[in-house]
Design brief:
Helices cover 56% and strands 12% of the residues. By secondary structure, it is mostly helical. The chain has a 3-stranded antiparallel sheet with strand order 1-2-3.
């Protein structure tokens, strides 16, 4: 009964049931687990969502597209999908993992969703996978209306008739983290914030978010 409900919500019935078993098996299991499928599924998810946004939101900037994509492929969204699919009830774990604690292991549930996308791809092909990804990941329509912190900051400064902020790269650490400086002037007063991230845009978003907080104080 549970498997039938899961498959119906997923929108796909596996031909090779072994692939499904591997996809929902946590790495704590001593048997074959979903780690490699999760690796493949992560790339498929990124490609499918990027392709969809590029084709359907031509009017948006790269930064705006990236913000939407980050929200859609976020662990938060994937975890919500996992609960919708009842993955918390069917996930297979090793003896070292307490199933009752899985409610707090949201990353593991998100990984299963990515592994499932990879399993569908292997079992049924790209077209079917794309349909499943878009159907599930776009369930929360609000994700498509998320605005970047940079855009929000720009609107705030324009409303105040001030110049747009200036972003500059301060440096990049040995572990690949970028540090970005954001400077703006409000009523001739200099406001400065610093953001970090694994990508320049991510660091800029953090710096913009901190500045919005300061301006709203």
């Amino acid at each position: 009964m549970l498997e039938s409900e899961f498959s119906e919500k997923l929108g796909y019935y596996f031909v090779n049931k072994e692939l499904l078993i591997v996809a929902i098996t946590h790495p704590s299991s001593e048997s074959v687990h979903n780690e490699k499928l999760e690796f493949l599924g992560d790339s498929l998810l990124y490609q499918i969502v990027t392709e969809y946004l590029y084709s359907n939101y031509q009017e948006l900037t790269v930064g705006e597209l990236s913000v939407k994509r980050d929200a859609i492929i976020s662990n938060s969204n994937l975890t919500n999908i996992a609960y919708y699919l009842l993955i918390d009830k069917i996930i297979i774990c090793g003896n070292s993992v307490n199933l009752q604690q899985l409610d707090h292991m949201k990353k593991s549930l998100a990984d299963v969703v990515e592994a499932l996308f990879a399993a569908i791809y292997i079992d049924g092909g790209y077209h079917v996978t794309r349909n499943c990804v878009l159907k599930l990941c776009m369930k929360d329509a609000n994700l498509l209306h998320i605005k970047s912190h940079k855009s929000t900051l720009q609107e705030i400064l324009q409303a105040k008739h001030e110049k747009l902020p200036i972003y500059s790269v301060i440096g990049k650490s040995t572990d690949g983290m970028f540090t970005i400086n954001c400077v703006a002037y409000v009523q001739s007063k200099k406001i400065e914030t610093t953001g970090t991230g694994s990508r320049v845009r991510q660091a800029e978003e953090m710096a913009a978010s901190l500045m919005i907080t300061q301006l709203n104080c």
